[in-house]
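2 proteins. here.
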Amino acid sequence: MVTVKTLKPYYIKVDARAIRVILAYKHFSVLINRELYQFVPLEAKEIRINRKTRKIENIGARFAFQKDKDIIYIAMTKLISLPDFLLQLYAIVESYFARDQRKVRQSEVEDRDTSLIIKHLERENIKRLIDHSLDEKDEEAFYKLVKRIQK
């Protein structure tokens, strides 16, 4: 039976594509058959998560854990099957996803604002064209423009 005891990143690296949770000696521990094993950086040293899909990318990684002289390797596929691992990992990286969500929401607001500004400018332009058609006594253009502004 494997249970994740602690998962504390040494540091976190973030770029546009991924969140990398970098692990260091004794920052990650597991209970295996009620024995505490500490992470040792012999093979995999990071957990890489795609910011867009929110999925772990380095699924083939193997992590080494040591208790005294005994070393056990646990594959990422095994770790992601452990709810406590996923909960702790999510707690670590969720703020980075929240930042992404804020950026998306801000972008949506900006797009909506831009759309409203464009509609307003188009309406003002039609009003100017109506004024121009009145000045030119162009009755046909006047009626076409009035129909457009009423939509």
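next one coming up
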Amino acid sequence: MTTNNEHIKELCNQLVSAVRADVKQDLYQRFKAEFDFQTGMHGEPLQAVRQRGQRGNDKRPFRPNSSLARVYRVLASRKHGVNIKTLARESGLTVRGVSNAVHRLRKHGYSIVVKREGFLRPKYRLAS
């Protein structure tokens, strides 16, 4: 008889958990229908997500005297390509700093072209 009672208790527990899951799903659907916006973990509204390299109006430009701005100004002031040592000298950065700035400018969506000719140093320029 105890096995029969245990079997009934198990069935009751399964029934209760199924009803709870059903009620939980119903409440979730009603809540989603009433409040049709997505929020983060703490209830803050989610912001639009841009793809990598895509620029948007809400994107903050780099600061006026940052290393990115200095490298950008040198690249923008030249019609032809500039090698990395000239970029470093004119922007006041190290060669490594210039290569990092070029990488970050590309990440921000700027198109920087590298032209390699023979054994000469590669020349960097902004794509038009």
